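## retry 2 of 3
previous attempt timed out at serialization; input unchanged, resubmitting
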Amino acid sequence: MPPPGQTPLARAKAIALRQLASRMRTEAQVRARLARDGLEAEADETVAWLRRLGYLDDAAYARARARSLVAGGRLGPRVAERRLVGEGIGAGEARAAVAAALAGEAGEDPRAAELALCRALAERRTRGRPLADLDASGLRRLSRFLLGRGFSGPVVARALGVYEDQDG
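## retry succeeded, writing output
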């Protein structure tokens, strides 16, 4: 129940600030939270106010979130992109943020970075057992795991030594 005399706009701003106090959010997430409390009419003004204050920045959110999603090979680029889109980031912006996260600060090629992350995750998954020692069943199981984590088929095949493509 809102405090007596509090306007809907003041209530919307208070809810948005509380939500942003714990971690960064996207505009879509803030709007969804306001809608849950029946404050859709105040969403535009609240979002504009948050942007003016510098508290709401979808591009910064996408960059930070992409870095955390692909860090250490937690997720491959395809799943990371889907997560960002699901959190309210546009598809193009999500793809760019993930590519930048893969490239890192060293300016590394995103494809080479994806391969390195995939190999690292494969090695962690096998608990130090050499990938060459896996039988066909083990390779299939590991391939499904890596594909499910969002790595591309060619990258998984290269990481597991199934084949080396000509341009890569």
